[in-house]
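Quick start: what a row looks like.
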Amino acid sequence: MPLFEELKVFSGNANKRLATDICDYLGMPLGKAEVFKFSNDNTFVRILENVRQRDVFLVQSFSMPANDHVMELLIMIDACKRASAGRVTAVIPYYGYGRTDKKDQPRVPITARLLADLLTTAGADRVLTVDLHAGQIQGFFSIPVDELTALPLLTSYFKALELPHPVAVAVDIGISKRARDFAEKLAVPLAIVEKRRVAGNVDRTELLNIIGEVQGKTAILMDDEVDTAGSMVNAAKALLDAGVREVYGCCTHAVLSGPAAPRLLQSPIKELVTTDTVPVPPERRDGKVKVVSVAALLGEAIHRIHSGLSVGAMFDTN
């Protein structure tokens, strides 16, 4: 595997704080670039440093406004390739549109695949991301994809809390495999909230029942992404009805759109633990949202990719 020249890290406007923290971990400054919109709503990018034959990493989450941030990244990739960058890695902590990974209704797109094609066409040589909504999204790319996981960060946080009689609970069956890994790392039992989503695109679900023993325990609800928080709040209420003492929540990506913040504030969830793959401003935290950073995780992965070292070895438990 060829090693490239000097490492450069640049950021779009989606999550500059995370990009700066990644550079702090790497012991280097964040690269200088102009990324803004003209008055006609067209996005403009100018890389203000020499990137010829450099190993370039572009940090950009597909957070709100998602379409603007996708376009910024595509244009940044193109700008770097036209400036003769040696290699361009798209660092996408939160891969938006990941839920659209299959045709679950007639005449709908597979937008997660479309984005993969756009990134490749723009000139990305690699992708680095965190906790994709579905593992098969890796296969949508014809370029290497390194998927990191925030599970060790989340499990470390809950281990330190030393909760009484904890049980890990998957918000739905779709996240049960990841919740099982979470439960194994915590050495606690696993339960699953079985639910049926209402037909169509309305963001409402119908809860059915709890699979597993939860009575008298402290539940830790697990999901990969919390958007409007409806599923997690409804799951918390169902767990309390089933005899749970307290409910905590955790996820990798806290989108927290629409009514999420007030919904969480009024919910029985004691604390929602998440990461900074998506920026969580203070007005959305309301004292219940605790953020742990993935900067060191991404920084170490960038170092290993640049140096030709194993990324998978970061998660070896032997």
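That is the whole record. The CA atoms of residues 103 and 109 lie 7 Å apart. DSSP finds eight helices and 16 strands in the chain.
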